[in-house]
Write a structure and sequence with these properties.
Layout (H helix, E strand, L loop, with lengths): L5 E5 L1 H4 L9 H9 L3 E5 L5 H6 L1 H4 L7 E5 L2 H6 L3 H17 L3 E6 L5 H7 L6 H22 L3 E3 H12 L13 H19 L4
Parallel strand pairs: 1-2, 1-3, 3-4, 4-5
Helix pairs in contact: 2-10, 7-8, 9-10
């Protein structure tokens, strides 16, 4: 049985919606970092769904670490933030109980202009974007309290895009393009190396 270094638990952004599996960011990151990353992203999943499948998708694969990124669909579907936070806390609790080191992903911010034309949100555009921002703040505080490393895609995604001169990074306001997923992989790898103290 092949050793799994890291399970990526998440939704369509982890799965790699809209591109083939070899362009999903966890696959790209595994090749760059030289570790075995198992992609357990599911299109349309919520924090509650990830909590339900944590045992099967994470624990039974015996990884050293688990990366969890949830909450984007919760916001788009109008699920109360309190419920999302409770589910996230339960997921992290299960990781600690199984002695699997957790890492949290902060979801990328949606593109408001594209979201209006291409995607449904339970809330208005401004409120949706505000909820993504407030969820990020909660995650940052949560990670600080629990001493959990995190990857801040929401902050770094636009910074990396600007640096690379990429103007179109979303397919539909929610899901990245192939180039967008490549940027996510780069952000993950850079942050992972920082966390682990790995050079290059």
């Amino acid at each position: 049985m092949e050793t799994v270094d890291l399970v990526c638990l998440g939704d369509s952004i982890v799965y790699g919606y809209g591109v083939s599996s070899r362009y999903a960011w966890p696959y790209l990151a595994s090749k760059t970092l030289g570790i075995n990353i198992l992609n357990k992203g599911e299109n349309g999943d919520t924090a509650d769904g990830m909590n339900v499948r944590f045992m099967e998708d994470v624990v039974w694969n015996h990884p050293k670490e688990v990366f969890v990124m949830a909450g984007a669909n919760d916001i788009l579907m109008g699920i109360p933030q309190a419920h999302t936070r409770e589910s996230m806390d339960m997921i992290i609790g299960k990781a600690f109980a199984a002695k699997i080191a957790p890492m949290i992903g902060i979801p990328i911010q949606v593109d408001g202009a594209m979201l209006k034309d291409c995607w449904y949100s339970f809330f208005g555009i401004d409120e949706t974007m505000a909820l993504f921002s407030s969820y990020r703040e909660w995650l940052l505080n949560y990670c600080e309290r629990k001493q959990i490393p995190y990857v801040d895609f929401q902050k770094k995604f636009p910074e990396y895009l600007e640096r690379k001169g990429i103007s179109r990074a979303f397919q539909d306001g929610v899901h990245p393009t192939r180039e967008g997923y490549a940027v996510m992989a780069e952000i993950f790898c850079d942050t992972y190396r920082e966390i682990k103290g790995i050079c290059g």
